[in-house]
Write a structure and sequence with these properties.
- InterPro entries: Nucleoside_phosphorylase_d (IPR000845), Nucleoside_phosphorylase_sf (IPR035994).
- This is Phosphorylase.
- One of its GO terms (molecular function) is catalytic activity.
- The chain is α/β, with parallel strands linked by helices.
- It has a single domain, classed as Rossmann fold.
- Helix content is about 40%, strand content about 20%.
- The protein is built from eight helices and eight strands, in the order βαβααβββαβαβαβαα.
- The protein has a five-stranded mixed barrel, surrounded by six helices.
- Strand 1 (about 20-25), helix 1 (about 25-35) and strand 2 form a beta-alpha-beta unit.
- Helix 2 packs parallel to helix 6 (about 160-170) and helix 7 crosses helix 8.
- The protein is globular.
């Protein structure tokens, strides 16, 4: 079962010191744009893409003063994800119950913080199970197989790493993402577009898009839909 829900008119009331972790780039910009109406917006920290880069980033972050707020009040991870099931389509909003890594280890999100967000969003279905991949999955067939093998509903590239580091440190973590690609269509092969530091490489990204224009157009449309939804959710936080 999936926690797919509709936006409602009521604002979402969360702890004022809640820290947001959002993949750098367009996702981070969308969240910041949505939160700009707040007089005292929460801390929104851009994180690199990928398991290894975000692991190193979080280990460094633990030694900073800004980590204290997260330790006290918790972390909400927001961003885009890919669907691994036909039951979830582009634009669907999902709350994580857990996240599994490539070794099969399953990490649970904080139930109290997750329940608070679920109640605020009026999500009536159960939560999703996520899988964290160390690379971009471009094949629809591969995504379908991955979902079946790991019994996962969505895929991302940071979730398990975040839970591994922060849960062990005692930080409550919830994850709220928006689906930007489905299981029915291939994506462009963008494996060369992410640097070892977890940043987008513009030239390899452009080359990957040009080589597969139809898939690229589909990816752009899905990403824009997901980003608009992220911004709309963030605009109601306060």
């Amino acid at each position: 079962m999936q926690a797919c829900f509709r936006l409602v008119a009521l604002p979402i009331i969360l702890h004022p010191l809640l820290t947001f972790l959002v993949p750098q780039g367009a996702e981070h910009r969308a969240i910041c744009q949505g939160l700009k109406h707040l007089k005292n917006p929460p801390q929104v920290i851009p994180i690199p893409i990928g398991v290894e880069p975000v692991t190193q980033f979080l280990r460094n972050w633990q030694r900073s003063q800004s980590f204290d707020a997260a330790l006290q009040s918790g972390v909400l991870v927001m961003g885009l994800c890919g669907s691994l099931t036909v039951q979830l389509g582009i634009g669907d909003r999902v709350l994580y119950q857990s996240c599994q890594d490539a070794s099969g280890t399953v990490w649970d999100c904080d139930p109290t913080l997750t329940a608070q967000i679920q109640q605020s969003l009026q999500a009536t279905n159960s939560l999703v199970r996520a899988f964290t991949s160390d690379r971009i999955l471009s094949s629809a067939h591969e995504k379908q197989q991955l979902g079946q093998v790991h019994q996962a509903d969505v895929v991302d590239m940071e979730g398990s790493a975040i839970l591994t580091i922060l849960a062990e440190a005692g930080v409550p973590v919830a994850m709220l993402r928006v689906v930007s690609d489905d299981t029915d269509h291939d994506l462009p092969d963008l494996s060369a577009a992410i640097s070892p530091e977890g940043r987008i490489r513009s030239l390899p990204l452009a080359i990957g898009m040009i080589r597969q224009p139809i898939a690229a157009l589909r990816l752009i449309r899905g990403s824009l839909t997901g980003l608009r939804t992220l911004e709309a959710i963030a605009a109601r936080l306060g």
